[in-house]
Amino acid sequence: MKKVLVAMSGGTDSSVACMLLREQGYDIQGVTMRMWDTPAKFSQPEQEEPDYILEARRLAAEMNFPHHVIDMRQVFRRCVIGDFVDEYLAGRTPNPCVQCNIHIKTKFLLQKANELGCDFIATGHYANIAEDGGVFFIEKGKDIKKDQSYFLWGLPQTVLQRMIFPLGGYSKQEIRAKACEAGFKYIAEKTESQDICFIDDDYRDFLKLQVPDMDERVGTGNFVDISGKVVGRHNGFPYYTIGQRKGLGIAMGEPMYVLKINAESNEIMIGTKDNLQVSEMRLRNCNFPAPHLVSSNEILMVRIRYKSRPISAYVEKIDRGSAIVKFVTPVEAVTPGQSAVIYRNERVLGGGIIC
User: Fold this and answer.
1) Which of 129, 228, 236, 293 could serve as a FRET partner for 169 with CA atoms 20 to 30 Å apart?
2) 180 among known catalytic residues
3) Cα–Cα separations (whole angstroms), residue 181 to 99, 122, 128, 131, 165
4) Local confidence pLDDT in tens for the 355 residues of the chain
5) At 28, phi and psi to the nearest 5?
6) Which of 18, 79, 100, 118 is the catalytic position?
């Protein structure tokens, strides 16, 4: 019997992943990674572990398989929180979920699987894996609204060749029904988790908590128009993102948007919606499992944010971890720090960080 180590968050998706793998005949072990503690994750006073660990442990006990906990708080703070803060202080808008999946979750999940002698690792992501000529690719999940392939573009072949996504062929509604059928109604009724696990409200408040002297270090700065003319003052560049319209506190007779952020000068360029459009972007830290299969003549689809619509584009050049992507028609609000993910139909051909 093949052994699989399942990442358990205590939520509906990872819980049902365990149920599906049990049905498929796998010998299961569960692991929960303790990443970041917030008060909202503790329902009782004097509680030593957050609710999600207790809930994952409860399910493992009810299903009668071993459950492990890895304390990742220090490495999470260093790798994910540190990157999150550094990116905003560099005038970029990071995607911490991508960083976590690449550098934390799957890396340490695989390490723990090796320690326990597990053949495979599994998570509750809505995505699929396909093998083509000995190369493994991420593919979209069945449920388009829940598809999480966008967050997984950076996973290396060492991870993908041992990864299982049990939920890839199901919709969220079907997953809730599976939990009910298995007698776990309380799991089916769990609410959806938030997008960023360490932020309860506004990222700006979180930045201030992590960098208490943020306002003194950065200070207020100038809004400038596309000609460089000063048109107003802002509260500090880390509190703004490309494409932002609301909260600028400036009136110019028509809606204005953030076009560029210059961290060195603490200057923010604003302009009209038309000024937001660009015809190409450069990517860094790229991962293309089979770059020779990506032709500069082929129109592919790219997503520049998790919930953004797919955009037609050419991947003009891939070289030493970087790529140049040209859009068929100009695109607005291309945001440095976010991930761009390249698709051919359902398949992720690669991705990178927008720079």
Assistant:
1) 293
2) no
3) 35, 22, 24, 32, 20
4) 899 999 999 999 999 999 999 999 999 999 999 999 988 888 998 899 999 999 999 999 999 999 999 999 999 999 999 999 999 999 999 999 999 999 999 999 999 999 999 999 999 999 999 999 999 999 999 999 999 999 999 999 999 999 999 999 999 999 999 999 888 888 888 777 766 888 877 899 999 999 999 999 999 999 999 999 999 999 999 999 999 999 898 888 899 999 999 999 999 999 999 999 999 999 999 999 999 989 999 999 999 999 899 999 999 989 889 999 999 999 998 999 999 999 999 999 999 999 9
5) -100, 140
6) 100
Contact 322, 286 (CB under 8 A): yes
DSSP 150: G
Q: Which of 18, 97, 197, 286 is catalytic?
A: 197
Whether residue 197 lies in the annotated active site: yes
- Give the pair of three-digit tokens for residue 50: 């957050």
